[in-house]
Amino acid sequence: MGNIIDTIGNTPLVEITSFHNNPNVKIYAKLEGNNPAGSVKDRPALNMIQSALERGDIKRGDKLIEATSGNTGIALAMIASMFGMEIEIVMPANSTRERTLTMEAFGAKVTLLENMEVCRDYAEEKAAREGIFILNQFANPDNYKAHIKTTGPEIWRDTQGKITHFVSAMGTTGTIMGNSIYLKQQNPNIQIVGCQPTEESSIPGIRRWPQEYLPKIFDPSRVDRIIDIDQADAIEKSRLLARKEGIFAGMSSGGAFHAALKVANELDEGVIVFIVCDRGDRYLSSNLFG
């Protein structure tokens, strides 16, 4: 028996069965919404805090600050509460109310600002000014290392090493970087496919960063292909995942699924795994399922 932190990881891998007809191409969804705080970000949140504790960068009772579009903040709020730490989450004002309420339920202070770039600047400046520890998921190697330790090995195990394509949304890029490193070590021929929104699209959890805000952990050489996702396609695929596969997930997961289907339609055979990064209940106050 352990505590809630011990339930992070080992999420289900389920087959998608309703959307294509080639029996030699398999599509699997990695259900990261099954993590206790509801998203793939539970993994890096835990690894960033635990690793900082092990190095002595922080200690129980310290104050933390982080800028996030939502899921990392919820995970950090949960895990910080387990370690007796105060945390301020800085988030864009257009984030769904569910996100703010969930963070506050875990005891976090939530600050809402204009957009993600402003949030990042605010968090870095306040950390420097007041001596608060910033986890900085955008430049913190412990972000992607969480996936080298856990997500990648789980996918390799659960596909019996048969995975040919890995598909992921790109926000902080920690998920795609860590899985790319691990999976390419097992088989260099595995194709790593990233998703970013088209210029005119807004998809929570997927970003098309201005050059000056590009995450420092991002190494473009680790991504074989990037597929641009239109907001309408991401919404449509999120709804279809719920209605045809019983997978209740957010818009970035719909975007990753759209990319996975595009890849599947190009193949004669293969095993595709895409990341379902969170749960759909984070978006009920938005028009995603309306």
Describe the structure.
With about 290 residues, the chain is of the alpha/beta class. The chain is built from 8 helices and 10 strands. The protein has helices at about 40-55, 70-80, 95-105, 115-130, 140-160, 175-185, 230-245, 250-265; strands at about 15, 25-30, 65, 85-90, 110-115, 135, 165-170, 190-195, 225-230, 270-275. It has a 6-stranded mixed sheet. A 4-stranded parallel sheet has the order 5-4-3-6, with helices on both faces. Helix 1 (about 40-55) crosses helix 2 and helix 5 packs across helix 6. It starts with 12 loop residues before the first strand and ends in a 14-residue tail after the last strand.
Q: Layout of helices and strands, plus pairs?
A:
Elements: E1 13-15, E2 25-31, H1 42-55, E3 63-67, H2 71-82, E4 86-92, H3 97-105, E5 109-113, H4 116-130, E6 133-134, H5 141-158, E7 165-169, H6 174-186, E8 191-197, E9 225-229, H7 231-245, H8 251-264, E10 270-276
Parallel strand pairs: 2-10, 3-4, 3-6, 4-5, 7-8, 7-10, 8-9
Antiparallel strand pairs: 1-2
Helix pairs in contact: 1-2, 1-5, 2-3, 5-6, 7-8
User: Which percent range fits the helix content?
Assistant: 25-40%
Strand order of the largest sheet: 1-2-10-7-8-9
Unreliable runs: none
- Determine the N-to-C terminus distance: 40 Å
The overall strand count is 10
Main sheet makeup = 6 strands, mixed
Instruction: Based on Cα principal axes, name the global outline.
Output: globular
Mean pLDDT score, rounded? Answer: 95
**Rg from alpha-carbon coordinates:** 18 Å
**Individual helix count:** 8
Structural class: alpha/beta
**What is the beta-strand fraction?**
15-25%
Helix and strand element order: EEHEHEHEHEHEHEEHHE
